[in-house]
Amino acid sequence: PGAPAATTCGDDESESVEAALAKALLESGRGSDWAARFAAAPQQRGGEAAPPISDEALRRLCASGVDEVAALAVYDAVRHNAFGLETPLLGVEHGAAFYETAAKLNHSCDPNCLSTRLGGNFALFAVAAIEEGSELFHSYLPPRLLVLPRRARRAHLHFPCRCSRCEAEPEEPPPPLAQLGWPAAHAATAEGHLVGRFSLLCAGGAPREVVAAGAGLLSNAPLVSTLRQRPLAALQVCLPLLASSWQARAMGGADAAADDEGGWCVSLASDLAAAAVEALAAAAAAT
């Protein structure tokens, strides 16, 4: 409810995005009682006695007269519940946000929902049939990490995940996932140059421009054939295209009209992304 608390990456590299967001929350009046609503469950804390924060970062959090207990509590809530803000394709982090309602969603490596940030807002989409009364799960990991094997995913979580997928997967990683990405030396080909320009556009272009560029990519039959055979490559192209399409619709006006004109490519991107997820699930199950 209300606007989310958010912060962006600044020039001070000594202050992490998490610490900067915790500082913003403390300055807005949040304290220990507020943080207690989002405390990590004991089994998710991994036995940690305290959140890992440097003495210098803690000093900055307490600089405005905040007591150390409140500062640590808010920082811990942020560390376990904040959402990173990144560019769609390149995954460049540019800030973090705390959504109080969304923070109550639990994680699964086999989620039934997909979350995305549209501007400064949090959006949740169902990606599977969900029975009434069933719990909604989304992934705390971005798509590029969610497709990794269990051991690699675990390194990016603050707790041991015990979802159905993690319980079913073997401890040993499957064959190199690079085999499911772009072919060797693809970046030096004409198609690779097109994808490279698309990647740069996704990092800072307007949604309507990304959708238009995506339409150009997906009108290339040989490239689409490659995407059908390389699920990781398909996700790298299709996920930012779909995110830009959602953003264009949310913005309305000319962006929405541009998105409607590119409807065929959005539909194709949805099909390619769905097929890629199924292919990756099949590959993981076969190992």
Task: Give me the count of strands.
Answer: 7
What quaternary form is this? single chain
**Overall spatial form:** globular
Structure class: mainly alpha
As a percent range, the share of strand residues is 5-15%
Biggest sheet, open or closed, and with what strands and sense?
3 strands, antiparallel
Summed up, the helix count is: 13
Which stretches of 5+ consecutive residues score pLDDT under 50? Answer: 10-14, 41-50, 254-260
Task: Compute the CA-based radius of gyration.
Answer: 20 Å
Description of the structure:
The protein is mainly alpha-helical and 287 residues long. Helices cover 49% and strands 10% of the residues. The protein contains 13 helices and seven strands. The protein has helices at 17-27, 32-36, 55-61, 68-81, 143-146, 150-154, 164-168, 190-204, 207-218, 221-229, 231-251, 253-261, 263-285; strands spanning 5-8, 83-86, 93-98, 106-107, 113-118, 121-126, 137-138. The strands form three sheets. A three-stranded antiparallel sheet has the order 1-3-2, with helices on one face. A two-stranded parallel sheet has the order 4-7. Strands 5-6 form a two-stranded antiparallel ribbon.
